[in-house]
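Severity: low
Component: inverse-folding endpoint
Summary: output formatting inconsistent between runs
Steps to reproduce: submit the following structure tokens with default settings.
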């Protein structure tokens, strides 16, 4: 399967700055939701073809690709986040949209088309398409998913230093047995999403 077919179709229609957008952290009990935005160049470097849904990649491969993305001059990328407090205030779905919008607004150039993983951003006037399983079907969304996942893992590893009892470096904020036991024992932290029962 050609994972650049969506991009190629848009390039053929004259779009130049096609931006993949994806998020990480919708399911955990704590921490921010983080979005990645990645503009794929028409003259893309070969390594980009190795980018895939971040969940399918080993941690080593994911970090390797992340390093390529952030150090490659030919590409434009950004990340955006919405905090646990914002998630509680506006709900996880709207907070995900907020994180995605923030990532897109931080890009050094304005995209002329958005490919989003199972989401639309009606607040933006940029043409866009919601792609179910987009991180597996589009290289641009795959790169965005790597940016989001690695950035969020780094955030949770940093927060773990402040709250070591919850083992966030290991569980990344998901509701593992150890994490739930730590909440029972120590109570929630300011980084926990209070609306997640």
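Observed output (run 2 of 3):
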């Amino acid at each position: 399967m050609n994972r650049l077919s969506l991009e190629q179709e848009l390039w053929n229609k004259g779009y130049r700055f096609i931006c993949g957008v994806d998020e990480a952290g919708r399911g955990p009990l704590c921490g921010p939701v983080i979005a990645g935005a990645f503009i794929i160049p028409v003259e893309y470097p070969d390594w980009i073809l190795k980018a895939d849904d971040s969940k399918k990649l080993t941690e080593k491969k994911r970090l390797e690709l992340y390093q390529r993305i952030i150090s490659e001059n030919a590409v434009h990328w950004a990340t955006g986040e919405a905090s646990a407090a914002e998630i509680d205030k506006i709900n996880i779905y709207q907070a995900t949209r907020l994180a995605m919008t923030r990532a897109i607004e931080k890009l050094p150039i304005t995209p002329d088309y958005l490919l989003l993983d199972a989401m639309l951003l009606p607040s933006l006037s940029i043409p866009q398409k919601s792609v179910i399983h987009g991180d597996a079907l589009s290289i641009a969304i795959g790169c965005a998913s790597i940016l989001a996942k690695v950035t969020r893992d780094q955030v949770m590893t940093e927060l773990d230093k402040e709250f070591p009892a919850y083992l966030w470096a290991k569980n990344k904020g998901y509701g593992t047995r150890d994490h739930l036991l730590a909440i029972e024992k120590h109570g929630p932290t300011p980084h926990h999403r209070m609306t997640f029962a």
